[in-house]
Amino acid sequence: MKMFARVLLFACVPFVTAGSYGQAPAPASTATAVPAPAVDTATAKEIASMQAKLNDWPQLARYSAENAALPPVAPGEQRVVFYGDSITDGWGRRPETGTFFPGKPYVNRGISGQTTPQMVVRFRQDVIDLHPAAVLILAGTNDVAGNTGPMTPEMTEDNFRSMADLAHANGIKVILASITPAFDYPWKRGLEPAPKIRALNAWLKDYCTQHGYTYLDYYSGLTDAEGGMKPGTSFDGVHPNEKGYAIMAPLAQAAIDQTLGGK
């Protein structure tokens, strides 16, 4: 037993090398700290933008205050929500896009850069809770561009189905607009979007026919022979200018009249 105690005591004594008595312990590492690489202003802005998107991916905060301030639908009023991406967002908000249906009870709920999955998430807040008679959905070009990651046509189609189902379940009439033309995307070159847009538009038209929804054909009035925007109708080949919106506005109004009975 005594022998076991002596062995145990010896095992607990730290090993000390010759000449180490009275000396301070050596630091764990003597390596010089390497400063983090400098981040340029452009990269810092991109990181901040990405962080903001992660914090509110569907951008529910964008219209929360405006939705709260929106008055209830007046008796006899037929509110229409224009729901979409930058092509809706920019309508009437910039000098080069003209006006957005003055005097009409139409509400703009477009958000620049959005894809259909983001729009599905905010559909209840920015459409259903506003109690419109109809919703006019213009989306899909950013899906083709891959703004929130690669997407198949089937993914985009499923999201259109989801938005239409949500609207229908809440007594809201559905207008699905064709995706507007684009021969190329300035922010993501080489994706050859024109044939992809034509294929999605064919699906949208057929889907509306099958389900009794209104199909709004912007595409035919805006496209050139190559599947891009007609000369003079856009300022970057994707986003309409005042002339482009002047073509779109009567088409949208005709679709609304058709859907709501011209009231």
UniProtKB/TrEMBL annotation:
Q: Read off the Gene3D superfamilies from this record.
A: SGNH hydrolase (3.40.50.1110)
Q: Which PANTHER family match?
A: SGNH HYDROLASE-TYPE ESTERASE DOMAIN-CONTAINING PROTEIN, THIOESTERASE 1/PROTEASE 1/LYSOPHOSPHOLIPASE L1
Entries under CDD domains matching the protein:
SGNH_hydrolase_like_4
Q: Point out the coiled-coil segments of this chain.
A: none
The uppermost taxa in this organism's lineage are:
Bacteria, Pseudomonadati, Acidobacteriota, Terriglobia, Terriglobales
What keywords sit in the KW lines? Answer: Hydrolase, Signal
User: Start and end of every SGNH hydrolase-type esterase domain?
Assistant: 82-247
- The source organism is Edaphobacter paludis
Provide a Gene Ontology MF annotation, just one.
phosphatidylcholine lysophospholipase activity
Protein name per its UniProtKB record? SGNH/GDSL hydrolase family protein
Superkingdom of this protein's organism: Bacteria
- Which InterPro entries does the annotation name? Ester_Hydrolysis_Enzymes, SGNH_hydro, SGNH_hydro_sf
Q: Does Membrane show up as a keyword for this record?
A: no
Against SUPFAM superfamilies, the record matches this protein to: SGNH hydrolase
What span is annotated as the signal peptide, if there is one? 1-18
